[in-house]
Write a structure and sequence with these properties.
169 residues, mainly alpha, two-stranded antiparallel sheet, 9 helices, elongated
């Protein structure tokens, strides 16, 4: 992930490098950089053909980053739902897309925040539920956030807000 060109913190950085590589005639590196950043090949083709002035916009850069990160993470089930929520928020708000693309923010980091909440908020499962589920363990706890809570944790992570809307340090 981001092996050759490193993590880029904005769509502007991606576009600046794309322009430089294009001007140097280095289309192979441009394609590699786009692939590293999750920019679809058809966007590269349109850019190289001069059909679009920039390789990507904030949304394309954010979704590309999430897709690249998910290629490593391979989110399933609830994590896939969380990923789709993040993508949806990027589609709703350019500001969110810009924040998702920032250096230091990652899908793994966001999932880690959700996991931290989950461990801090485990509740014991009643014995009759364990029995009905065929679970013979003496004690089972569960701490998965509901969707409203997960959305807040995700938003706080990417937008850098704390519990009361204060900036995190």
């Amino acid at each position: 992930m981001f092996e050759k060109f490193g993590e880029m913190g904005s769509y502007k950085e991606i576009n600046e490098l794309a322009e430089n590589l294009f001007n140097e005639g280095d289309t192979d590196s441009l394609r590699t950089m786009a692939e590293e950043n999750g920019i679809p090949e058809d966007y590269v083709e349109m850019y190289l053909a001069g059909d679009t002035p920039e390789l990507c916009d904030p949304l394309t850069a954010a979704i590309g980053k999430l897709d690249v990160e998910n290629g490593e993470l391979k989110a399933k089930e609830i994590m896939q739902d969380w990923l789709e929520y993040i993508k949806g928020r990027c589609m709703e708000s350019e500001y969110v897309a810009l924040k998702v693309r920032e250096k230091g923010k990652s899908l793994k980091g966001c999932i880690a925040e959700l996991l931290k909440w989950s461990f801090k908020n485990q509740i014991p499962i009643k014995k009759d539920i364990l029995k009905a589920a065929g679970v013979s363990a003496g004690r089972v706890t569960l701490g998965i956030p509901g969707m409203a809570r997960a959305k807040k944790i995700i938003t706080d992570y990417y937008l850098g807000t704390g519990k009361k809307g204060e900036k995190q340090k």
